[in-house]
Amino acid sequence: MAMETAIYNRLPISSNHFLNSRQGDKFYLFKGQALSLTGGMVTALSATAPGKGGGVLDRPVKEKTPPGRESEFDIKKKKKITPPYRVILHNDDINRREYVVQVLMKVIPGMTLDTAVNIMQEAHHNGLSVVIICSQAEAEEHCRQLRRNGLLSSIEPASGGC
Q: Is the pTM of this model over 0.85?
Protein backbone atom coordinates (compact mmCIF):
# COMPACT_ATOMS: atom_id res chain seq x y z
CA MET A 1 0.00 0.00 0.00
CA ALA A 2 1.48 3.36 -1.03
CA MET A 3 1.19 6.55 0.93
CA GLU A 4 1.38 9.99 -0.70
CA THR A 5 3.11 12.70 1.32
CA ALA A 6 3.77 16.37 0.62
CA ILE A 7 7.14 17.45 2.06
CA TYR A 8 8.88 20.70 1.10
CA ASN A 9 12.18 20.94 2.92
CA ARG A 10 15.78 19.73 3.11
CA LEU A 11 15.53 16.46 5.02
CA PRO A 12 18.49 14.44 6.34
CA ILE A 13 18.41 10.86 5.07
CA SER A 14 21.76 9.90 6.59
CA SER A 15 24.73 11.81 8.01
CA ASN A 16 26.07 12.64 4.50
CA HIS A 17 22.86 12.62 2.43
CA PHE A 18 19.96 15.07 2.28
CA LEU A 19 16.67 15.01 0.43
CA ASN A 20 16.02 18.38 -1.24
CA SER A 21 12.41 18.86 -2.23
CA ARG A 22 10.29 21.61 -3.74
CA GLN A 23 6.60 22.35 -3.61
CA GLY A 24 4.83 19.98 -5.98
CA ASP A 25 7.24 17.06 -5.47
CA LYS A 26 5.53 13.80 -4.52
CA PHE A 27 6.99 10.88 -2.62
CA TYR A 28 5.53 7.40 -2.22
CA LEU A 29 6.59 5.38 0.79
CA PHE A 30 5.86 1.66 0.93
CA LYS A 31 7.46 0.20 4.06
CA GLY A 32 9.46 1.37 7.00
CA GLN A 33 8.90 4.93 8.07
CA ALA A 34 6.71 7.63 6.64
CA LEU A 35 7.65 11.27 7.02
CA SER A 36 5.14 13.95 7.95
CA LEU A 37 5.57 17.72 8.08
CA THR A 38 3.69 19.23 11.03
CA GLY A 39 4.00 22.91 11.89
CA GLY A 40 7.43 23.18 10.25
CA MET A 41 8.78 20.13 12.13
CA VAL A 42 9.50 16.82 10.39
CA THR A 43 8.42 13.77 12.32
CA ALA A 44 8.69 10.09 11.51
CA LEU A 45 5.69 7.81 11.81
CA SER A 46 6.44 4.13 12.06
CA ALA A 47 4.27 1.92 9.86
CA THR A 48 4.80 -1.07 12.12
CA ALA A 49 5.09 -1.69 15.80
CA PRO A 50 8.44 -3.05 16.94
CA GLY A 51 8.72 -6.74 16.12
CA LYS A 52 5.49 -6.91 14.14
CA GLY A 53 4.67 -7.09 10.44
CA GLY A 54 3.13 -4.42 8.23
CA GLY A 55 0.34 -2.29 9.58
CA VAL A 56 -1.81 0.70 8.82
CA LEU A 57 -0.70 4.22 9.68
CA ASP A 58 -2.91 6.19 12.01
CA ARG A 59 -4.15 9.46 10.60
CA PRO A 60 -1.79 12.22 11.80
CA VAL A 61 -3.27 14.71 14.23
CA LYS A 62 -2.98 18.32 13.07
CA GLU A 63 -1.57 20.41 15.88
CA LYS A 64 -3.30 23.69 16.62
CA THR A 65 -1.32 26.92 16.60
CA PRO A 66 -0.55 27.93 20.18
CA PRO A 67 -2.26 31.12 21.40
CA GLY A 68 -0.33 34.25 20.48
CA ARG A 69 1.33 32.59 17.45
CA GLU A 70 -0.46 32.99 14.17
CA SER A 71 0.35 31.29 10.92
CA GLU A 72 1.07 33.28 7.77
CA PHE A 73 -2.30 32.15 6.39
CA ASP A 74 -4.15 33.52 9.45
CA ILE A 75 -2.41 36.89 9.15
CA LYS A 76 -3.24 37.20 5.43
CA LYS A 77 -6.86 36.21 6.12
CA LYS A 78 -7.23 38.95 8.75
CA LYS A 79 -5.94 41.58 6.31
CA LYS A 80 -8.85 40.84 3.94
CA ILE A 81 -11.47 42.25 6.34
CA THR A 82 -14.05 44.43 4.61
CA PRO A 83 -13.86 48.16 5.31
CA PRO A 84 -16.07 49.38 8.17
CA TYR A 85 -19.28 51.38 7.72
CA ARG A 86 -21.18 53.68 10.08
CA VAL A 87 -24.91 53.33 10.63
CA ILE A 88 -26.26 56.84 11.20
CA LEU A 89 -29.54 57.72 12.91
CA HIS A 90 -31.10 61.02 11.76
CA ASN A 91 -33.38 63.15 13.90
CA ASP A 92 -37.05 63.29 12.92
CA ASP A 93 -40.08 65.12 14.30
CA ILE A 94 -42.40 62.14 13.86
CA ASN A 95 -41.24 59.42 16.30
CA ARG A 96 -41.34 59.77 20.06
CA ARG A 97 -38.02 59.46 21.90
CA GLU A 98 -39.13 56.36 23.82
CA TYR A 99 -40.03 54.61 20.55
CA VAL A 100 -36.61 55.42 19.03
CA VAL A 101 -34.89 53.89 22.08
CA GLN A 102 -37.06 50.74 21.85
CA VAL A 103 -36.29 50.30 18.12
CA LEU A 104 -32.54 50.76 18.65
CA MET A 105 -32.53 48.09 21.37
CA LYS A 106 -34.58 45.74 19.18
CA VAL A 107 -32.56 46.17 15.97
CA ILE A 108 -28.96 46.46 17.20
CA PRO A 109 -27.60 43.34 18.95
CA GLY A 110 -26.29 44.02 22.45
CA MET A 111 -27.62 47.59 22.55
CA THR A 112 -28.20 48.63 26.16
CA LEU A 113 -30.83 51.08 27.39
CA ASP A 114 -28.19 53.66 28.36
CA THR A 115 -26.46 53.47 24.98
CA ALA A 116 -29.76 53.69 23.09
CA VAL A 117 -30.80 56.75 25.12
CA ASN A 118 -27.43 58.44 24.45
CA ILE A 119 -27.69 57.77 20.70
CA MET A 120 -31.28 59.07 20.62
CA GLN A 121 -30.30 62.23 22.56
CA GLU A 122 -27.32 62.91 20.30
CA ALA A 123 -29.49 62.55 17.18
CA HIS A 124 -32.14 64.82 18.73
CA HIS A 125 -29.67 67.59 19.67
CA ASN A 126 -27.15 67.33 16.79
CA GLY A 127 -29.39 66.14 13.97
CA LEU A 128 -27.64 62.75 13.66
CA SER A 129 -25.77 60.13 15.65
CA VAL A 130 -23.57 57.11 14.89
CA VAL A 131 -25.45 54.00 15.98
CA ILE A 132 -22.82 51.32 15.24
CA ILE A 133 -19.70 50.73 13.14
CA CYS A 134 -19.64 47.35 11.40
CA SER A 135 -19.15 45.62 8.04
CA GLN A 136 -20.99 46.96 5.00
CA ALA A 137 -23.40 44.01 4.85
CA GLU A 138 -24.29 44.35 8.55
CA ALA A 139 -24.63 48.15 8.22
CA GLU A 140 -27.02 47.78 5.28
CA GLU A 141 -29.15 45.30 7.24
CA HIS A 142 -29.28 47.49 10.38
CA CYS A 143 -30.21 50.52 8.26
CA ARG A 144 -32.96 48.52 6.54
CA GLN A 145 -34.38 47.37 9.88
CA LEU A 146 -34.31 50.89 11.34
CA ARG A 147 -36.17 52.19 8.28
CA ARG A 148 -38.73 49.35 8.47
CA ASN A 149 -39.50 50.58 11.97
CA GLY A 150 -40.03 54.15 10.76
CA LEU A 151 -36.67 55.71 11.73
CA LEU A 152 -34.53 57.80 9.39
CA SER A 153 -31.12 56.20 8.92
CA SER A 154 -28.24 55.95 6.47
CA ILE A 155 -24.80 54.36 6.16
CA GLU A 156 -21.41 55.76 5.18
CA PRO A 157 -17.84 54.39 5.04
CA ALA A 158 -15.99 54.78 8.33
CA SER A 159 -12.29 55.42 8.73
CA GLY A 160 -10.42 53.03 11.05
CA GLY A 161 -11.30 49.48 12.12
CA CYS A 162 -14.53 47.79 13.18
A: no
